[in-house]
Design a protein that fits this description.
Helix content is about 50%, strand content about 20%. It is α/β, with parallel strands linked by helices. The protein folds into four domains: about 80 residues; about 150 residues, GAF domain (Beta-Lactamase); about 150 residues, Alpha-Beta Plaits; about 230 residues, TIM Barrel, CATH 3.20.20.450. The strands form four sheets. Strands 13-14-16-17-18-19-20-21 form an eight-stranded mixed β-barrel, surrounded by four helices. Strands 2-1-5-4-3 form a five-stranded antiparallel beta sheet. Helix 13 packs parallel to helix 14. This is EAL domain-containing protein.
């Protein structure tokens, strides 16, 4: 639908100039007529006829002059009244423009802005009705403001800037919706002002007036200015809304975890600082640090997406199983924190233990598979004389102790001197380890024999890493290996062990060694390249060097471990699966792992004489291993009785203090120079 636009050009100055010219011409013609007509009458008619005719002529002239002046004056007054009405109308239009700009200054929302414009248009007497519509996000038009008479708020079939006007709806011949309804309400003039945003029409303003033809050129120009101002205001509002959305997203990213929707550590720290201030006034609080046990196994075996879904499910579970007023946050990876206010030590420990039990009893569904997990919890009490950072460190220390004690437990931080001394000792050990890796001094390998149980012959030695503290004192692996793993030093340690073992093998051709590989090195292709290079450089037969990997490290990523261990065997090295039975209660993965030996974990060997269950398990391990063509090694043999039981159960090899403690290679060579596997061992201690 296209609207005609009629503009009435009325110029008061031109009309006044025209009136002045007409009056001058009239006076000139009248003077000439009077002058020439008197002379003509005197010549044509003798007196007294000429006198009477002149008198009649004068009366006619006066009458015509009066009539002409009356009509001119009436026309002038009509034009003046119309001009004053136009001026008044324009003044009101300027008031509407001012009201629009005033509403723009107080800009809050598109609805409030358009409502203010519609209300001002009606209240100022300019229009009888007004409405505004905006295009919604779904593309549909929405009525957002209305004032004046109730008329159908329809949308024109076509809108084009800057405006569209119907100056007289009664005489409008084209098709127009609701024409009769508008005329019934006395609306004769309609104007539509499109509103644009980024050059697209996003809405429009509609005005209706009673009189036809009330919108001249000046009014329409002002209305176009109003539409432009409102369009600018709508763009500002849209830009402001976008900025607010971006700010909200940034605020959410800063304070909330995008994966779980829980707050970040920074959010919890702010509340923890408030809890410290409350603790000074006597309100007790506690901080829980929660870690999902063996979470990395989910990532390695089921993929990172499954790990993410586990974190999401656990976050929901955590939020549902703590008190409503508790603050839950995800601080890193699989670590969560819960701030519990208004609790004492006993209640905090009880709530933590209840949470641990619920997690242990609840399976989490991950893509149709059920995963059961456990958690370790460290608790620190919030005190008014300690900073928030200190409380978080204390909770972390308690969590670390919970992991060291076997996981799946709750540990309350106790500020004991022994704990502080242990932390100080850890730092000293870490410094020793870093120094040893840099200088090459302080690290050394101790050897412990592995014996064939049938004839007590030594078949090879296991190389065990030690860190020297002073001349006659060494750190055990339990002290520095966890630190090396925590601070990313294990790859360097593994390479040092391999090179040192090759040096021993080169210097003592009668020995055969097995060395331990950390879980971080299993799957490292660069380590295989390093080993191949060192074997060639040292000129050592690969069959004299074996490797032990833990069960947990091997099954963390079974497919990758299988390929990597196969390449290691292809080099000619033998393989042993260490700590067998301690990680998973299944033998199915043994088919795919190319290992030669299964080392039964010492937890099954200790107490073997008195525990029938352990004896049955060891017997089952031997049976499965032999069925798969693998040999078994029992760790931790410390008595003759244990040795005899293992022989009866069919165990192939043994290792433990009963056969010998770990010793430096010089001591072993000095005492037993014969080739490995040749001589009998001395009498058992």
């Amino acid at each position: 639908m296209v609207f005609d636009v009629e503009i009435w050009p009325e110029r008061m100055a031109s009309m006044r100039l025209l009136a002045e010219r007409v009056a001058l011409i009239y006076l000139l013609l009248a003077s000439l007529w009077v002058f020439f007509s008197d002379r003509w009458l005197a010549l044509a008619f003798p007196p007294p006829f000429s006198y009477h005719l002149g008198l009649a002529k004068g009366l006619v002239f006066v009458a015509l002059t009066a009539l002409f002046l009356y009509l001119g004056l009436r026309r002038f007054c009509s034009l003046q009244a119309r001009a004053e009405e136009r001026i008044e109308h324009l003044n009101r239009m300027y008031v509407l423009l001012a009201e629009t700009n005033h509403a723009l200054i107080r800009l809050q929302s598109p609805q409030l802005l358009l409502a203010a414009v519609c209300r001002a248009a009606v209240e100022e007497g300019l229009f009888a009705t007004a409405w505004a519509m905006l295009k919604g996000p779904n593309g549909y038009w929405e009525l957002v403001a209305r004032a004046g008479r109730e008329v159908p708020a329809f949308v024109p079939s076509s809108l084009a800037p800057p405006y569209q006007v119907i100056n007289d709806l009664l005489s409008y011949e084209e098709e127009f919706p609701f024409k009769d309804l508008f005329l019934a309400q006395g609306i004769r003039t309609l104007a539509f002002l499109p509103l644009t945003a980024n050059k697209d029409i996003s809405g429009f303003l509609a005005f209706g007036a009673e009189k036809p033809g009330v919108l001249g050129k000046e009014e329409l120009e002002l209305m176009a200015q109003i539409a432009a101002d409102i369009s600018f205001g709508l763009e500002v509002l849209a830009h402001r809304e976008q900025c607010l959305q971006v700010q909200e997203k940034l605020h959410h990213l800063v304070h909330y975890d995008p994966l779980t929707g829980l707050p970040h550590r920074f959010y919890l720290e702010d509340h923890l600082k408030q809890a410290v201030l409350k603790a000074r006034r006597g309100l007790s609080s506690a901080l829980m640090v929660i870690d999902v046990d063996n979470y990395q196994l989910i990532n390695d075996n089921w993929g990172y997406k499954a790990g993410d879904r586990l974190l999401q499910a656990f976050a929901r579970f955590l939020r549902e199983n703590v008190r409503e007023e508790d603050i839950v946050a995800r601080v890193a990876g699989d670590k969560f924190m819960v701030l519990m206010e208004d609790v004492f030590e006993e209640e905090a420990c009880r709530l933590a233990e209840e949470l641990r039990q619920r997690v242990e009893e609840t399976p989490f569904e991950l893509d149709g598979r059920m995963a059961r997990v456990t958690i370790s919890i460290g608790i620190a009490l919030v005190k008014g004389d300690e900073a928030a950072e200190t409380v978080m460190s204390q909770a972390d220390l308690a969590l670390r102790r919970a992991k060291e004690e076997g996981r799946n437990r709750v540990v309350l931080f106790q500020p004991e001197e022994e704990l502080l001394a242990r932390l100080k000792g850890e730092q000293e050990v870490l410094n020793l380890l870093k120094e040893a890796l840099v200088t090459g001094r302080g690290l050394l390998l101790f050897l412990q024999p592995v014996v064939r149980l049938s004839d007590l012959q030594v078949v090879h030695y296991e190389a065990l890493l030690r860190l020297r503290e002073c001349v006659d004192k060494y750190c055990s692996p339990a002290q520095f290996i966890p630190l090396a793993e925590r601070f990313g030093l294990m790859p360097r340690l593994d390479r040092w062990v391999i090179e040192s073992a090759l040096d021993i093998l080169k210097a003592h051709p009668q020995l055969k060694l097995f060395v331990n590989l950390s879980g971080l090195s299993v799957g490292d292709d660069t380590l295989l390249e390093y080993l191949q290079m060192k074997l060639k450089e040292k000129e050592v037969d690969p069959s004299r060097l074996g490797f032990e990997v833990t069960e947990t490290a091997a099954i963390r990523n079974l497919l990758r471990a299988e390929r990597w261990l196969s390449r290691l065997r292809w080099l000619g090295c033998e393989l042993a699966l260490d700590d067998f039975g301690s990680g998973f209660s299944t033998f199915s993965y043994l088919r795919s792992l190319p290992v030669d030996y299964l080392k039964i974990d010492l937890s099954f060997i200790r107490g073997l004489a008195s525990d029938r269950v352990h004896r049955a398990l060891v017997e089952a391990m031997n049976t499965v291993a032999h069925t798969l063509g693998k040999l078994t090694v029992a760790e931790g043999i410390e008595s003759e009785e244990t040795l005899q039981i293992l022989r009866e159960l069919g165990t192939d090899f043994g290792q433990g203090y009963y056969f010998g403690r770990p010793e430096p290679v010089e001591v072993i060579i000095a005492r037993r120079p014969e080739p490995a596997g040749g001589p009998d061992l001395p009498a058992a201690p």
